[in-house]
């Protein structure tokens, strides 16, 4: 049987799949399906390669009703910058959900992961941040610092953004980029504590292994999204934050228990042995999100295969519509 | 940085990567590295999709000294034949072992898996079969029945081949194909017991979940390779065979304990709690293989990510030499 496989490069995918409300909406729907229990999502396959200072993570998920599912390969090779190469790259393979036949290869170098990760932050802000956010803050100065603030701004039209990072120069560059991108004033804070004090919405985007945000900084009407921890050694939030918050929400409880902020909180004896609310349950209205403007809420994002399948299916549809991609003839059978 | 990714179709890979002595040799070297402990090989990621009668397995392994490593995606969707499509297909992604950057995508629809699986049978026959094999037999009538006999014939120049399968018509077709391919007489046996009685080398290639080969059929000077079981529900050999054999060898003990013949044997109380010889240890001379022409030997093959990395690296080198493949421009960074 004649068959063709669509190959899309990062450049094509950047043109087809912007970080926009549609991306936030479809990632929200993926969370909804995931927390509804219909999604098949095996544990992440992680291969650690100390010999070359590298690691590879493979994620996948099948979402009923989707025509495709994605398998995402995310390598991280941390000696790459010395070679002039980025540490993170990778691709997604898209398979038919009916036949398993390869439909497309998305050579995104991690771009789609960046979009679906930021979109998850947008979903969290939409479900959990106070209705009125005047000032949003981001801890960290990398790609996700920029994208998380962009996603949050799509759902809460805050008037000011504050950046804090260990490297003041990088924080200043991040603030300049955000000011230009969002068209609002952006500034650098002298400390993470000062940033939190002045914000109603804070996103942590660091690879920290020790808390960068302390429980005694909490104040009424604060929402925190911690998206940096996606491995068992990482930790951004003081465990007491999870204990003291009025509402703690995870993207996927099984993953957060091993890879997220929930891991250190449970190690400290908090939130143990209970079924915790997942973001998707709030999206579909099965669980309440923020119940008052004064509440303190926390969302723990580790990144799920369901998001990958959702963004990959969207990317493929957008590319088909725009007639983008290389077509490789691949006879089957 | 400018970068290009090589995309190879099944047709190109069939032309570049025949099942030959070189394939057997390189798979033998992969086993050698695997049993030497230097290979990083995470457990198989398995996703079961009962809703669509499908499954997906993902295997990978890093072999020190190789420039690349492969990630193999193997979907099996068992309603496909009704659609005129094969049940099994899939692809391999080849990454640089130094930077993690995607080098190639091998759209092999399972062809390379067929080659590396048959090559493993060739390694097993070479290490374990009697020096003189006059008659070889195969139980099963599918693609691997043909390829296993072809691989075995590359290492033992037997004069006759016997086929047995539940479907006599398929067994006859398989025998005709083997007679033509190997250029030796091929016949169909009336029973598996009769086949075993007349052979010095037997390969089982079935998806059986109950034994197709019984312990009371064993005779001096017999080698059996069981390559059908690669999942926890499968079983081709009577567990007593593993207990009675003079030598039992596995491709990878951890995998065979959950996916291979070793699983049912250990459930019956045999070979429990000990470190068992792996095929690679015999390849590199760390462990003895067959010690006499009269011995009964058994090899249990479940299929390893190390084989995938070895065959993928070989395929990429052959394709580069032949200047085969589509080149996709994929700027990095």
Automatic annotation (TrEMBL), chains A, B:
**Top-level taxon of the source organism:** Bacteria
Family matches, as Gene3D superfamilies: NAD(P)-binding Rossmann-like Domain, ornithine cyclodeaminase, domain 1
A Pfam family recorded for this sequence: OCD_Mu_crystall
Q: Please identify the protein, giving its name as recorded.
A: Cyclodeaminase
């Amino acid at each position: 049987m004649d068959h063709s496989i669509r190959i899309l490069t990062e450049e094509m995918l950047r043109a087809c799949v912007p970080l926009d409300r549609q991306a936030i909406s479809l990632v929200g729907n993926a969370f909804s399906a995931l927390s509804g229990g219909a999604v098949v999502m095996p544990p992440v396959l992680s291969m650690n390669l100390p010999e070359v200072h590298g690691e590879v993570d493979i994620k996948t998920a099948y979402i009923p009703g989707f025509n495709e599912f994605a398998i995402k390969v995310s390598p991280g090779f941390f000696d790459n910058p010395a070679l002039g190469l980025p540490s993170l790259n990778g691709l997604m393979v898209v398979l038919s959900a009916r036949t398993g036949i390869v439909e497309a290869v998305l050579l995104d170098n991690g771009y789609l992961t960046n979009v679906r990760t930021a979109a998850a932050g947008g979903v969290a802000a939409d479900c959990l941040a106070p209705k009125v956010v005047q000032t949003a803050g981001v801890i960290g100065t990398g790609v996700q610092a920029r994208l998380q603030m962009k996603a949050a701004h799509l759902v809460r039209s805050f008037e000011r953004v504050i950046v804090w990072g260990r490297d003041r120069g990088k924080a200043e560059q991040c603030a300049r980029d955000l000011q230009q991108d969002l068209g609002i004033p952006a500034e650098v804070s002298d400390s993470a504590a000062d940033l939190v004090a002045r914000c109603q919405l804070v996103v942590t985007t660091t690879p920290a292994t020790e808390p960068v945000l302390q429980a005694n900084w909490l104040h009424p009407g604060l929402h925190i999204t911690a998206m940096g921890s996606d491995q068992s050694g990482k930790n951004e939030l003081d465990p007491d934050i999870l204990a003291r918050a009025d509402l703690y929400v995870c993207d996927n409880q099984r993953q957060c228990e091993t890879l997220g902020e929930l891991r250190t909180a449970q190690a400290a004896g908090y939130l143990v042995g209970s079924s915790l609310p997942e973001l998707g349950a709030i999206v579909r209205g099965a669980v309440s999100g923020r119940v008052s403007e004064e509440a303190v809420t926390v969302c723990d994002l580790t990144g799920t295969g369901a998001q990958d399948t959702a963004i990959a299916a969207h990317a493929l549809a957008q590319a088909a519509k725009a007639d983008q991609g290389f077509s490789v003839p691949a006879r089957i059978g």
